[in-house]
Amino acid sequence: MSNHIDAAPGAVAPLVLMPGDPLRAKWIAENFLDDATCYNNVRGMLGFTGTWQGHPVSVQGSGMGQPSLAIYAHELFTEYDVDSIIRVGSCGALVEKVGVRAIVLATGACTDSGMNRVRFEGLDYAPVADFGLLRAAYDVATARDDVATWTGLIFSGDQFYPPRSEVMKPMVDHGVLAVEMEASALYTLAAEHNRRALAICTVSDHLVTGEETSSHEREQTFGAMVEIALAAGLR
Ligand code: HPA
């Protein structure tokens, strides 16, 4: 047991899928894993371990935002010897070409968070995905004809409701495709602990066109993303 995860040693698989929403973790366990059992309910941040195509896999909610994700990723890396964490989340698209329901494989994650400013004492660190996971996810995703796949930079913002959204323009002008709230901390922690991480996000809403997805569409694309994450993580 660690501070926030009530699991016995060995109860968490080397590969963890990490949605923000703990109920999404339950949904993934129920719909994609065989013989899944719940190993954590501390603060309702559900975690499950089961198997996918015979391989052990865990799925752990992270909560919203980098401070929350960092608690779970840190404990999984340091106390449960987790090798790979794949975030499976949603994002808001910042450029017209990336439509709702598309999947974004985050090559790197910019941020406005103070976490890395403190960690790197004012120097700018570039948090990036594990190349092996990224390449595997790209191969798996682009072999499917039911999802549009983009690879590129995303922005991990501290605020879902930023007071001045115009501040994102220079980011967009430098290739940032979408915004979410967790990937930058995940990539940084994986680097610190010499582990693997990738963030895969489905576009749930469009910050340029205003388009949104229905809950049914969100579930469908979320399912495709989970399949891509499982196949990529176990390659
Ligand atoms: N902002 C931040 N995170 C998000 C968004 C957004 O617009 N959409 C989905 N996750």
The run of helices and strands is EHEEEHEEHHEHEHEH
Radius of gyration, CA atoms, in whole angstroms:
17 Å
Q: What count of helical segments does DSSP give?
A: 7
**CATH fold-level assignment:** Rossmann fold
Helix content: 25-40%
Residue-averaged pLDDT: 97
For the record, the CATH class is Alpha Beta
CATH second-level architecture: 3-Layer(aba) Sandwich
**How large is the share of residues in beta strands?**
25-35%
Biggest sheet character: 5 strands, mixed, barrel
Structural class: alpha/beta
Shape: globular
Separation of the first and last Cα atoms = 29 Å
* Bound ligands: hypoxanthine
List the strand order in the largest sheet: 5-8-7-6-9
Low-confidence region ranges: none
- State the domain count: 1
The number of E-state strands comes to 9
- What is the H level of CATH, i.e. the homologous superfamily? Nucleoside phosphorylase domain
